[in-house]
UniProtKB/TrEMBL annotation:
Alphabetical list of InterPro entries matching this protein: Peptidase_A24A_bac (IPR014032), Prepilin_IV_endopep_pep (IPR000045), Prepilin_peptidase/N-MTase (IPR050882)
GO molecular function: aspartic-type endopeptidase activity
Name of protein: A24 family peptidase
Keyword terms: Hydrolase, Membrane, Transmembrane, Transmembrane helix
Highest taxon in the source lineage: Bacteria
Enzyme Commission designation: 3.4.23.-
Lineage summary: Bacteria, Pseudomonadati, Pseudomonadota, Gammaproteobacteria, Enterobacterales
GO cellular component: plasma membrane
Length: 176
C-alpha cells in the first residue's frame, strides 16, 4: 500500500517509513484489543517512545508538541476515566486506552487529540448502537481500534498532504 503512495508521489522520504511503522503498530494494537480486550504496555509504550524519538531525529521543532501531546493524551483520558467512574460507578476506559492516546499525542502533537477523541468516540458509539440493533447484545467494546483508526487516518493524511506544519491537517484547516 505505501509503495503505491510512494510511486504516486503522495508519500516521500522518511514519511513512508514513519507511516509504515505507525500503521503497523496500530494494526497490531487493534487486533490484540479486539481479540483480548487488552492493549499491551510493551506495544503502546514503545509506540510512544518511537514517536518521540522520530520527532527528535527528523522534526525536532515538533518534539515539544509531541511531549505535550503524550502528557495531554494520557491525562485527558485519565480524567475521563475517573469522571466516568465517579458518575456511573463503573469503568468506561481501560488503562491501555490512556497509553494509546498518549502515543497518538506523541506522534501527532497535542493539537490533534481533541479530533482523535471525538471521532473515535463517535465511531465507537455508532458501532455500539448498530451492534445492539442487530444482535441485541450489550456490554463492553474495545475502544483501541477506534482510536487507532482515527489516529492512523489523520497521521497518514497529514503525511500525504505534506503541509508545512506536519502535525495536524485538521488543526491547520481550522486556523485558516
Amino acid at each position: 500500500m505505501f509503495n503505491q503512495f510512494y510511486q504516486l508521489g503522495l508519500l516521500h522520504g522518511y514519511s513512508i517509513i514513519t507511516s509504515a511503522i505507525f500503521v503497523s503498530y496500530l494494526l497490531a494494537l487493534s487486533y490484540i484489543d479486539v481479540i483480548r480486550f487488552q492493549l499491551p504496555d510493551w506495544l503502546t509504550l514503545s509506540l510512544l517512545w518511537v514517536g518521540l524519538l522520530l520527532h527528535a531525529i527528523f522534526t525536532p521543532q515538533y518534539l515539544v508538541s509531541g511531549v505535550i501531546g503524550a502528557a495531554a493524551g494520557y491525562l485527558g483520558f485519565w480524567a475521563i476515566y475517573w469522571l466516568g467512574k465517579w458518575l456511573f460507578k463503573r469503568e468506561g476506559l481501560g488503562y491501555g486506552d490512556f497509553k494509546l492516546m498518549a502515543a497518538l499525542g506523541a506522534w501527532m502533537g497535542w493539537e490533534c487529540l481533541p479530533f482523535v477523541a471525538v471521532y473515535a468516540s463517535i465511531g465507537g458509539a455508532i458501532f455500539y448502537v448498530l451492534r445492539f440493533c442487530f444482535y441485541r447484545t450489550r456490554g463492553e467494546i474495545p475502544f483501541g481500534p477506534f482510536l487507532a483508526t482515527v489516529g492512523g487516518v489523520i497521521y497518514v493524511s497529514q503525511q500525504i498532504l505534506s503541509l508545512a506544519d506536519p502535525r495536524c491537517v485538521f488543526c491547520v484547516i481550522i486556523k485558516i
